[in-house]
Automatic annotation (TrEMBL):
Underlying gene: atp8
UniProt protein name: ATP synthase F0 subunit 8
Keyword annotations from UniProtKB, A to Z: Membrane, Mitochondrion, Transmembrane, Transmembrane helix
Transmembrane portions of the chain: 12-33
Length: 47
């Protein structure tokens, strides 16, 4: 099926890009939440 090859490559490409982006966003938000929690703990300690 040579006609189907480009479609399959596109699907794989989009699948991996979406996977990669979702993974990056997850790490970014986890990092933000950790930082916010650390800041909140520091502020609580100051009081």
């Amino acid at each position: 099926m040579p006609q189907m090859a480009p479609m399959n490559w596109l699907i794989l490409y989009f699948f991996f890009t979406i996977l990669f982006l979702s993974f990056n966003f997850m790490n970014y938000y986890m990092f933000l939440i950790k930082n916010l929690m650390m800041k909140n703990k520091k502020m609580m300690e100051k009081k």
